[in-house]
Design a protein that fits this description.
Elements (H helix, E strand, L loop, with lengths): L3 E5 L4 E4 L5 E4 L4 E5 L7 E5 L3 E5 L18
């Protein structure tokens, strides 16, 4: 099972596929992502299609998604 969290973007980011599909991440918007971080320091964002986005595009979570306690 994959843990899902909501993350807020802290900067704009975009990517375009060879077929012309594109994904835009906009600062201030919240996105549904996986909780786990990939080895290349990216996370998967679920949107129009699944795409790996650099972790530094998002604000670090302040609340544990499991127990809902504030993180240090």
């Amino acid at each position: 099972m994959v843990a899902i969290v909501e993350r807020m973007a802290i900067r704009d980011w975009s990517i375009e596929a060879q077929n012309g599909d594109h994904q835009d991440i906009r600062k201030g918007q919240t996105y549904t992502t996986i909780e786990d971080i990939h080895d290349d320091n990216t996370i998967t964002v679920f949107s129009r299609f699944w795409v790996r986005v650099p972790l530094n595009v998002f604000q670090l979570p302040t609340v544990c998604p499991h127990c809902k306690k504030e993180l240090p």
